């Protein structure tokens, strides 16, 4: 019974991740400027890493990456590798550099993940498709997307952290008082 | 940095990524990719349609607001251009009048002072007077003849100040001019305005034969007004056998209601 419940929960999460990827690929990418820069997959990935663990986040990265590769126009592996780098470096930062699990940590982590993800994608695309062309760092579009995505990610981080702390007391601040 | 279990997961993770890439390279993953694509197709199509419709409505709204902005800007431009156009037309009309005046003055070797009409006096009794922007400083004095741009006599100066002067129109009751009809006898008479609309010529000898259509010009008997300036055309003749003089109604040749620039003839 417990195993069945676990399997159902896993299937539910797999479907949820798949649905989020489809929303990202088919709906959000078609929205007008500004809105299309919202990256739900990245937010979901860091949310899972921050509130759950690295293993769950790795599953999210693999599944979301595979879905993205199916819909991708780039070489196979671009999103899988980008998500791998993003998750690995974010996990390292979370363990080694961020001392607690506060809102500020979450904001910094999601900002870091956005930067790593965008740099990974841009660098690999540059190497793959146009190594002799203009470097992405010199392109205004790259920086604009990065800024917009960072703003969206930060807003989502504030919202999700608020939602998570309202549902669980794990991340609410506590103070030691001398009586 | 990483714990052992962390390392394990990281290695598994990296391995899975590499495995997927290799499997894709050997087309082993194709059935899975096709399955994922076909399963997701109905949902992704629906999401795509929503995205498109949202995008379209946003674009339409944006375009609408852009068009409204454009209409506003164009309306402003139209208003500015309308004003500029009317100014151009006014300048063109003024230019035409000045050219005509210059042409007339050159042809007749008259010395003249061009003047702008700056005001029209309120009509009192039957007087119809205009104020011009030239005065005694420009050499004007009472009695000088004033002509339109085509050279038709429209009145004469009645009073002057330093920088302005008042002229009475030929249709004004108080505006008397020594005139001559262009007939065989060159009949002489005196004109004065009639109700501010026409000119009446009096004191024409009964013996002279005059007919409607004949032109009336200045006779040159007045010291300040040269001979030969056109006043108007006879439209009606009043002739009764028991009167010493006969009279005639003259229609002014110039349009006295549409004057902007005039020339004061200096003899």
Largest sheet of chain B: 6 strands, antiparallel, barrel
Give the class of chain A from helix and strand content and strand pairing: mainly alpha
**Pair with the most extensive interface?**
A-B, 34 and 32 residues
Helix and strand composition category of chain B: alpha+beta
Identify the quaternary structure here: heterodimer
Question: Overview of this structure, please?
Answer:
The complex is a heterodimer of chains A (179) and B (267). Helix content of chain A is 73%, strand content 0%. Chain A has 179 residues and is mostly helical. Chain A has one domain. Chain A is globular and about 55 Å long. The relative contact order of chain A is 0.11. Chain B folds into two domains: 55 residues, no CATH class; 157 residues, Rod shape-determining protein MreC, domain 2 (Thrombin, subunit H), CATH 2.40.10.350. Chain B has 267 residues and is an alpha+beta fold. Helices cover 38% and strands 29% of the residues of chain B. Chain B is built from two helices and twelve strands, in the order ααββββββββββββ. Chains A and B meet through helix 1, helix 3 and helix 4 of A and helix 1 and helix 2 of B.
Compact summary:
Chain A is mostly helical. Chain A has helices at residues 2-27, 40-51, 54-71, 78-96, 103-129, 140-167.
Any chance you could write out the topology, listing elements then pairs?
The complex is a heterodimer of chains A (179) and B (267).
Chain A: H1 2-27, H2 40-51, H3 54-71, H4 78-96, H5 103-129, H6 140-167
Chain B: H1 4-25, H2 30-108, E1 111-120, E2 129-132, E3 145-147, E4 153-160, E5 165-169, E6 177-181, E7 188-194, E8 198-205, E9 215-218, E10 230-238, E11 245-252, E12 261-266
Antiparallel strand pairs in B: 1-2, 1-12, 2-5, 3-4, 3-12, 4-5, 6-7, 6-9, 7-8, 8-11, 9-10, 10-11
Notable features of this structure?
heterodimer; A: 179 residues; mainly alpha; globular; B: 267 residues; alpha+beta; Thrombin, subunit H; 2 domains; six-stranded antiparallel barrel; six-stranded antiparallel beta barrel; rod-shaped
């Amino acid at each position: 019974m417990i195993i069945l419940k676990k399997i159902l929960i896993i299937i539910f999460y797999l479907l949820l991740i798949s649905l989020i990827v489809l929303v990202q690929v088919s709906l959000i990418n078609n929205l007008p400027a500004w809105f299309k820069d919202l990256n739900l997959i990245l937010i979901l990935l860091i949310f899972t890493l921050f509130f759950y663990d690295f293993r769950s986040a790795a599953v999210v990265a693999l599944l979301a990456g595979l879905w993205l590769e199916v819909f991708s126009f780039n070489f196979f592996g671009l999103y899988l590798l980008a998500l791998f780098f993003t998750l690995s470096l974010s996990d390292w930062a979370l363990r080694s550099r961020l001392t607690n699990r506060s809102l500020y940590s979450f904001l910094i982590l999601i900002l870091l993940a956005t930067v790593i993800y965008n740099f990974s994608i841009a660098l690999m695309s540059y190497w793959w498709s146009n190594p002799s062309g203009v470097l992405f760092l010199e392109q205004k579009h790259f920086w604009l997307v990065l800024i917009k995505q960072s703003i969206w990610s930060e807003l989502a981080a504030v919202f999700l952290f608020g939602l998570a702390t309202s549902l669980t007391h794990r991340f609410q601040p506590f103070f030691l008082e001398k009586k | 940095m990483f714990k052992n279990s962390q390392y394990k997961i990281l290695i598994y993770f990296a391995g899975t990524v590499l495995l997927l890439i290799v499997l894709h390279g050997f087309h082993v993953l194709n059935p899975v990719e096709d399955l994922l694509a076909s399963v997701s197709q109905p949902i992704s199509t629906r999401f795509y349609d929503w995205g498109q419709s949202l995008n379209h409505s946003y674009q339409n709204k944006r375009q609408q607001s852009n068009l409204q902005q454009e209409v506003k800007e164009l309306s402003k431009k139209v208003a500015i251009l309308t004003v500029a156009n009317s100014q151009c037309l006014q300048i063109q009309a003024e230019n035409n009048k000045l050219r005509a005046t210059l042409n007339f003055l050159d042809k007749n070797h008259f010395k003249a002072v061009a003047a702008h009409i700056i005001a029209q006096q309120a009509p009192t009794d039957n007087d119809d007077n205009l104020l011009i922007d030239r005065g005694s400083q420009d050499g004007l004095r009472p009695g000088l003849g004033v002509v339109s741009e085509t050279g038709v006599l429209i009145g004469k100066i009645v009073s002057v100040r330093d920088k302005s002067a008042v002229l009475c129109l030929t249709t004004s009751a108080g505006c008397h001019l020594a005139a001559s009809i262009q007939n065989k006898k060159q009949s002489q008479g005196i004109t004065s305005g009639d109700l501010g609309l026409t000119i009446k010529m009096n004191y024409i000898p009964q013996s002279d034969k005059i007919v409607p259509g004949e032109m009336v010009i200045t006779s040159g008997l007045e010291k300040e007004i040269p001979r030969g300036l056109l006043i108007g055309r006879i439209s009606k003749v009043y002739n009764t056998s028991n009167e010493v003089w006969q009279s005639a109604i003259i229609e002014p040749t110039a349009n006295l209601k549409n004057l902007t620039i005039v020339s004061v003839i200096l003899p």
